[in-house]
Write a structure and sequence with these properties.
eight-stranded parallel beta sheet, globular, alpha/beta, two-stranded antiparallel ribbon
Amino acid sequence: MLAGLILIGRMPTPRLAGEVASPSESPAAAPWDLDADIGSVIVLSWNGRVGWPTIEPLLVKYKIGGVLLFTPNFGGTPAGVKVWSDRLQALASSECLDHPILTMLDEEGGEVANIKATFAPPWPRAMASSGPDVVRELERINGAGLRTAGIDLNLAPVADVRTNPLDGVIGDRSFGSDPTVVAPLVGAAVQGLHDGGVGATVKHFPGLGGAAGNPHVAIPTDPESEATWTQVQLPGFQAGIAAGADVVMTTSVYVPGLGAGNTPALFSPSVIGRLRTQLGFSGVIISDSLSMYGIGVKWSLPQAAVMALTAGNDMLLLGNGDPSYEVSAIAAIKAAVLSGRLDRTKLHDSAMRVNGLRDRWGRRVTQCREPSTA
């Protein structure tokens, strides 16, 4: 996701109409709270300085698991983002939530830094020449600054190896074009963010650096064979996962060499499945923005949300910027579960992985107690 630079606006897509049945009315019923499971996997975003009175009731009603903030939401200052984080923590306590609401942003370095502060690192490409030890220390400083500002999860580092000069989205966000250089730097960045006290996300699986174009404009195609992908793009993700990455972000790119045909990677069960089987990743798999223009011209946000979960993503960056439209994806997910199109057990498993992430990195909430009857 081109975070810090672009938040894609609402696409002119249809909204879902009508009410859906309750879990007890459907064969998809299970001994879990369906609404809570759906809410856990949702990441809400909004355009500009939408007020707390607009956001708060949505977070409560839909039991939202995370929010993704951008510079226009809070003015780009550590104090500004802390205001939002404190609100989220207080809400989790006052509503007796079982898990914190994750506060996320992109602080990759260079211009992709939503908090404009001295702790933000340089462009990854600029950091690369300094080696893993320096990268780890720079990311430790970054992580500590983010944690003080109330951020739980950084959607960084970028693991893409940039090999295509026609790439229109990665550029200096990558540590470079040599996988033997990039991989250890990705691992160091993950460790540094953990040292500083925040969760880390490696992105954009299976890799954007070999494709021409920009998925915010149109879904690009990476013509690499599986053998080339294994040598070039895979090592960075392996290194990040080996270093303890909490989250891997999937993205919108056609990768026919990996057997996905004309299905974007973030909608491909076979591509996403490699994270579990080939890389042994047991953490949270999060989608890139489901509102990037390349996706939005083909699928509505509700459709994309169901497709992304069906493919194996655990958590969804809706990324539309209009919260009232974003929550229409929740109705679509619920309908898909109740109709049997979306596996109820797999949804619950995803929610459990997300809730574990929330408990690990989220700011501790004050647990509610039953009133005394004495």
